[in-house]
Amino acid sequence: MTKLRLAIVGAGPAGIYAADILLKAERGFDVSIDLFEQLPAPYGLVRYGVAPDHPRIKGIITALRDVLDRGDIRIFGNVKFGTDITLDDLKRHYNAVIFSTGAIRDADLDIPGIDLKGSYGAAEFVSWFDGHPDVPRTWPLEAESVAVIGNGNVALDVSRILAKHAEDLLPTEVPDNVYEILQSSPVTDVHVFGRRGPAQVKFTPLELRELGELRDVDMIVYDEDFDYDEQSKDAIASNKQVMVIDRVLQQWRQREVGAASRRLHLHFYAKPLEVLPDEDGRVRAFRYERTEPDGEGGVRGTGEIREVEIQALYRAVGYFGSPLPDIPFDAKHGVIPNHEGQVLRGDDNERMYGVYATGWIKRGPVGLIGHTKSDAMETIKHVINDQGNWWSPTDPDEESVDNLLRERGVEYTDLDGWHNLDEHEQALGAERGRARIKVVPRDEMVRVSNRTSVSASSED
Q1: 153 in a labelled binding site
Q2: 66 shares its domain with 121
Q3: Are residues 297 and 340 in the same domain?
Q4: What SUPFAM superfamilies does this protein's entry cite (predicted)?
Q5: 14 annotated as belonging to a binding site for a ligand
Q6: Does one domain contain both 121 and 223?
Q7: Which CATH number do you get for residue 85?
């Protein structure tokens, strides 16, 4: 029987779901799947893009673990596409490849002053507080007043972590270095800005409710933002999620405030204009234009300009994909150009046979787990139907890939290695009554994964 040797680059939810869907699909051929991941551990943004105080969301890892633990998918961690293994290598050993590399960079916010000292991208901050091995171990939390630009879940994650008292994170898997720096943060006020009104926000009710549960943090909303137009009223009446969000915000309007040591302000109808510098070139203030509903679902400027004094700013206006060596890339949208997951050449828009995409690198950084699954199903349908256009590898033997990586001196990790690291992190946490303590340095992750003994204190 014909056998499909499939490589999947990226071991986050998109890649793992694609592998699972293919293995369960009706097909007339056998399948052998290898996942390649540039980090030593799998699960992508579920491990490195979800705040540590969101264990319910991280529960998706259980489902992903069940897929990998069946044993019918190999994983090669700590392997970077384009460096450790190339497209030519994949053509030599596989019939096809699916790229599921996600979107981990911050989208741009094109306003003056956005690159001042003290202005940061939310994605980098999230990577830091999630213990990503490829970002600095320190973070300059020196501001008393901070602005967060965006009205999505990432903006709320960033705002919550900035406003929350560090000791309230101790039951979670927050890395020690992150806890220590958050503990010394002088922050008193976090201001969240969105262009549109409360009925048009992109965050979910669960995320919003969690803000209101922060200890010793006042939720500040402004009455001027709740003079709803007819379209907003219709959205609240017809959409249950919008209705719940409005209910939460209305409850906050009734709260007594002033007793907490920290405040989290939600500013709606605020169009970013400029980040203003001090004499040393650091963030001093955020300038915005007050907007109003335009009657067609959008907003228009009112001409009223406001400023808020701040010392740091985080833009949380979306994630953006990154180009891959030898693979077409749409720099405007941050995706691999494709038709239903079939990758298209950038110059002539023709099919690039044997190459597919799924997840955020395919469709952009929108949608949740349900979208990721349906997205993978669409791509896998084409992989199955494209059998006549698969590559013809000259060395499809499974062991050839292990040999190639070893010859190149790549210290790759495998599924057993992930189990070692997972157990090690949980053991570190158990010693201190915590869920887990992440190992952060990449070389240490690899050593633990590959069964080299390591001291329990070296995650610091």
Answers
A1: yes
A2: no
A3: no
A4: Nucleotide-binding domain
A5: yes
A6: yes
A7: 3.40.50.720
Domain that holds residue 77: 1-102+320-411
Q: With the CA atoms of 10, 11, 12 and 15 taken in that order, what torsion angle do they form, in degrees rounded to the nearest 10?
A: 70
The count of structural domains within the chain is: 2
Q: Is 307 annotated as a binding residue?
A: no
Looking at the structure, tell me whether residues 259 and 195 fall in a common domain.
yes
- Quick one: 14 and 56 in the same domain? yes
Least confident of 59-63, 79-83, 206-210, 421-425: 59-63
CATH number at residue 145: 3.50.50.60
Interatomic CA distance for residues 448 and 460, integer angstroms: 15
What is the arithmetic mean of pLDDT over 403-413?
Answer: 97
CA 266 to chain centre: 23
Question: Residue length, the chain?
Answer: 460
Nearest to 360 by CA among 81, 107, 137: 107
Reported as a single tens digit per residue, the pLDDT across 221-265 is 999 999 999 999 999 999 999 999 999 999 999 999 999 999 999
Q: Is the separation of the CB atoms in 45 and 383 below 8 Å? A: no
Residues 269 and 131 occupy one common structural domain: yes
Residue 429 is labelled as binding a ligand: no
Can you give the pTM of this predicted structure?
A: 0.92
Residue 37 assigned ligand-binding role: yes
Structure tokens at 141: 């939390």
Query: Would the annotation count 152 as a binding residue?
Result: yes
| 408 known member of a binding site | no
In this structure, is residue 268 part of a structural domain? yes
Q: Is residue 285 part of a domain?
A: yes
Q: Is 196 annotated as a binding residue?
A: yes
With cut-offs at 50, 70 and 90, classify the pLDDT of residue 124. Answer: very high
pLDDT for 166-216, tens place per residue? 999 998 889 999 999 999 999 999 999 999 999 999 988 988 998 999 999
In DSSP notation, 262-311 reads EEEEEE-SEEEEEEEE-TTSBEEEEEEEEEEE-SSSSEEEEEEEEEEE-S
- The reported pLDDT for the residue numbered 1 is 61
